[in-house]
Amino acid sequence: MTYFAKLKKFFWFFVKLAIAGGIVAYLAFKNPTEIIDGFRSFNYIWLVPALLFYLLHMLVCAWRWHRLTRILGVRLSGFEALSLTMQGYFFSLVIPGGAIGGDVVKMGVLSKRTRPGAKMEGAFTILIDRIVGMIALFALALLLLVPAVPVLMKIEVPNIAIDDGMRILFIICLAGLCIAGLGASSVIFFHRFIEKLPVFGPLMKWGDRISHGMVTRLTSATDVYLGCWPELCKLVVISIFFVHLMTVVPFAFLMTGLGLHVNLLTLVIAVTIGNIIGLIPLFPAGVGGRDVATVTILVAGSVAVGDAKTGQLLYTAIVLFFNLIGGLFFILDPGRRNTEQLLEEELEA
User: Fold this and answer.
1) Which of 127, 298, 342, 345 is 20 to 30 A (C-alpha) from 330?
2) Where are the domains of the chain?
3) Using CA atoms, how far apart are residues 326 and 200, in angstroms rounded to an integer?
4) Mean of the pLDDT values across residues 314-340?
């Protein structure tokens, strides 16, 4: 990699950090008095359950991935699954590749610990884990969309005049995004149909030939998961309640700490749509995009601007805290030297 290419990669990484930091700073300094008063009046004892339930959400994510590795016969202990999951969160925050970069490092580390002949399958479990989580998130958003309409129709954007037509267009685009996300996440499970198509079939055979059977191994691994579709469906349902809805619980405790009783549906809508916006690769660990989306919807749901921003800033602090905690798993990992080598390769790529 040339010096210029490295410089360009890090430049865009810092641009993303600047955008995320700029959005958070804007939210903070737009209503400084209300936010300062919110931090002063906040009952910090409510941070304890908020932290515990966010930790539970991350533990369920690690457990889900561990279940998916067992289906494919990848040897990985429960603690290793937790350690690599936490390291993935950490690297998603601190390396230029963002969320994708975290997964790349996670795949690389797992391949070092997987027996010969099963390295591709190990990496594939990470992809399937991401797919299961995405299906759960987009399905939840679609289920919430109809009851969310009254709140979304009250959305206001500071210094921008928007009318009902624009709000309706936003709702339609959000529905389209969720449907497209479900389609993109599920398409891998229809590979047997795709390989019969005139164009894609020959392409898959050509790719299999030049990759020495990699496509065949991927499709075979997908068939294994398809054979366990009841388990996958169960994991999707568990992800809806104990991954995505579980992120609402810490926020509810934070709002309680502020002395507020926010409508539960409004809170679920705000956090869920905020999590979807946070998927945009432009925002490291979702910071920035998730914040502005969640605050905007909470305000539309009759939460005071200062309270909405205080709650969101506290929530973002919890997210960043646990992402950084993932660095401890990296430091204490016996295989850290292999991970450091993979990091160098990732930064050189």
Assistant:
1) 127
2) 3-348
3) 40
4) 83
- The Cα 101–Cα 178 span in angstroms is 24
At a CB cut-off of 8 Å and minimum separation 6, what does 206 contact? none
Euclidean distance between CA atoms 73 and 120, whole angstroms = 12
Q: How many CA atoms lie within 13 A of 177 on its CB side?
A: 16
Are 310 and 44 in contact by the 8 Å Cβ rule? The answer is no
Pick the closest to residue 224 from 325, 83, 142, 120 (CA basis). 120
What tokens were used for 343?
A: 């990091």
pLDDT at residue 99 greater than cutoff 60: no
> What backbone phi and psi angles, to 5 degrees, belong to 62?
-65, -40
Q: Which residue has the tokens 């994991």?
A: 235
Is residue 50 exposed (0-12), middle (13-18) or buried (19+ Cβ within 10 Å)? buried
Q: Bridge partners of 157? A: 160
Among candidate residues 166, 135, 332, the one with its CA nearest the CA of residue 244: 135
pLDDT, one tens digit per residue, over 198-230 is: 888 888 888 888 877 888 888 888 999 999 999
C-alpha atoms less than 13 angstroms from C-alpha of 11 in its C-beta half-sphere: 6
State both tokens at 245: 């809805």
Residue 319 has pLDDT above 60, yes or no: yes
- The radius of gyration of the chain from alpha carbons, rounded to an integer in Å, stands at 21
On the question of pLDDT at 10 being above 90, the answer is no
* 1 pLDDT above the threshold of 70: no
Predicted TM-score of the model (pTM): 0.89
Name the DSSP class of 303.
-
Ordered DSSP codes for 187-207: GGGGHHHHTTSTTHHHHHHHH
Amino acid 28: pLDDT: 84
Which residues make Cβ contacts (< 8 Å) with residue 104, sequence separation at least 6? 97, 346
Look at residues 294, 212, 303 and name the one whose alpha carbon lies nearest to residue 256.
303
Name residue 1's amino acid.
M
Q: In whole angstroms, what is the distance from residue 293 CA to residue 297 CA?
A: 6
**For position 120, what pLDDT does the model report?**
77
